[in-house]
Amino acid sequence: MKYWTDKETGIRMCKPDCADEWLQFIWEVGVDYDGNRTPESLMSLIDEIIEYSQNARQCLRKGKIFSNEME
């Protein structure tokens, strides 16, 4: 997981940086999609999932399957 602190809000942020974390993120989005009731919001959700899957594939191509924290 990549961590940083947002300069404007001071809030600690994170972003997946390996295939395992991106796949977990996709699963979490899929489990918690309940608020998306309109076609437009569902289309947006699909676009998000596609982006996350592309990130997971890039990590796989680079051999970054698991986080360094897990090693």
Could you walk me through the main structural features you see in this protein, from its secondary elements to its overall organization?
With 71 residues, this protein is mainly α. The chain has one domain (15-70). 51% of the residues lie in helices and 11% in strands. It contains two helices and two strands. The protein has a two-stranded antiparallel ribbon with strand order 1-2. Strand 1 (2-5) and strand 2 form a beta hairpin. The mean pLDDT is 93.
Give the structure's gist in a few sentences.
A hairpin with a 6-residue loop joins strand 1 (2-5) and strand 2 (12-15).
Question: What is the secondary structure topology, with strand pairs?
Answer:
Layout: E1 2-5, E2 12-15, H1 19-31, H2 39-61
Antiparallel strand pairs: 1-2
Rounded to the nearest angstrom, the radius of gyration is 14 Å
Q: Which stretches of 5+ consecutive residues score pLDDT under 50?
A: none
Enumerate how many helices there are, as a single number. 2
The amount of beta strand, in percent, is 5-15%
Helix content: 40-55%
Sheet/helix structural class: mainly alpha
Question: What is the residue-averaged pLDDT?
Answer: 93
- Count of discrete structural domains: 1
Strands of the biggest beta sheet: in what spatial order?
Answer: 1-2
Distance between the termini: 13 Å
N-to-C order of helices and strands: EEHH
Number of strands: 2
